[in-house]
Specification:
This protein has a single domain, classed as 3 Solenoid (UDP N-Acetylglucosamine Acyltransferase, domain 1). Strand 19 and strand 20 (about 185-190) form a beta hairpin. About 15% of the residues lie in helices and about 30% in strands. The protein has about 210 residues and is an alpha/beta fold. The protein is globular and about 60 Å long. Mean pLDDT is about 90; it is low at about 200-214.
Length: about 210
């Protein structure tokens, strides 16, 4: 009984903190927030990023959102309706990252629209700012699943319904409804996980394989 009471107190304390402190504080930091947004812990936000959150979004704890003022336009993070962002996910944003409807990002992932430093070794040593050409937006399509430990690099588009295997490094676009994994991530199966034809029917898995997404 004492064990259950201990965790009951923790759950109640977190609920009160979310309703009275974390939610209002995070909403005040966002440019727009939809209905029924749930956060497990207060995200850590730095820089001038504009944050737009849709309806019925869930965000776990220890989420980091870091941004810089490199371009004239402010960087943007857009998380659309019914998307889910798990624990220990970090965003590095200098232009734009978009998470579309029903997409799910598993725990311990990193999504960045730049390398965070110049390519040239002398410019890195001098702590020079990045070039605008090295900042390219990232988009994760509707219903996509991003496996835990994945790093999605600048300029990547993850197609609708695509699945990225755990601990992958994605540097190329992934087409819709494909299974991709590895470092760098390669498309292994196409026509993977398409929607079922009727409720309760499992989605089919294709056998068309490719060496690398185009």
């Amino acid at each position: 009984m004492l064990y259950e009471a201990h965790f009951g107190i923790i759950i109640a304390f977190n609920f009160i903190c979310n309703r009275l402190y974390r939610h209002p504080l995070f909403q005040a930091r966002c440019a727009s927030v939809g209905r029924n947004v749930s956060i497990d812990r207060l995200p850590y936000v730095t820089g001038p990023v504009e944050i737009h959150i849709g309806n019925n979004v869930w965000m776990g704890g220890n989420i980091s959102i870091a941004s810089g003022k490199i371009l004239k336009e402010p960087p943007r993070l857009v998380i659309r309706d019914h998307a889910e962002i798990s624990w220990d996910v970090s965003f590095a944003i200098n232009r734009e990252i978009v998470i579309e409807e029903y997409a799910r990002v598993s725990f311990n992932c990193r999504i960045s629209d730049s390398d965070g430093h110049p390519r040239q070794s002398d410019l890195r040593a001098a702590n020079a700012p990045m070039s605008a050409r090295d900042i390219r937006p990232v988009r994760i399509g509707r219903y996509a699943w991003i496996g835990n430990g994945t790093h999605i690099m600048k300029g990547v588009t993850i197609g609708e319904g695509a699945v990225i295997g755990c601990n992958s490094v994605v540097i190329y676009d992934v087409p819709p409804y494909c299974l991709a994994l590895g470092n760098p991530a390669e498309v292994l199966i196409r026509n993977y996980g398409r929607p079922s034809n009727r409720p309760g029917e499992s989605a089919g898995v294709g056998t068309d394989r490719a060496v690398r997404s185009q």
